Description:
Layout: E1 6-13, E2 21-26, E3 35-36, E4 38-41, H1 50-62, E5 71-82, E6 86-95, E7 109-114, H2 116-119, H3 126-139, E8 143-149, E9 157-164
Parallel strand pairs: 1-6, 5-8
Antiparallel strand pairs: 1-4, 2-3, 2-7, 5-6, 8-9
Amino acid sequence: MEKIPYKLAVLVFVENTAGEHLLLLRAKPPNLGVWSPIGGKLETATGESPFECAARETFEETGLRVGAHDLHLFAMIAEKAYEGQAHWLMFLFRCKVRLAALPPAISEGRFAFFSRTAIETLPIPETDRKALWPIYDRHRDGFVALKADCAPGKPIAIEVEQALPHPRD
């Protein structure tokens, strides 16, 4: 069996004051030419934590300064063989601080705000459509750990490994 790399990344779901979601039209792989939440890879050489990475990526991509207390970790997803290129361990955060304005374009792409229903009509990664956004809808105030088999040539298989409701539920 061919070895493929294992990568660690964060995605940060940011909204504006109207409750619309900030998405980035990606200008680089992975996800070139499709809309997705902001995020990036952990700096493993420095021992960066997922929360530190989420705060760093939020600032680098939007200019919004946030700390761990401004972020809610709502999901951890282990994606096996995404696009046949890599395994990913992704940490999904909801930013509690809202943006007042659209950030300027960056080297990774350009931004726009979308309502949750409008996102369904956008070009987004298939795993986002089938897994990421439904996870957000259901667990954004709680926590869920999942694993997804994304091996090419077969349907995406998703298994919930743990789900915890929001403390107020």
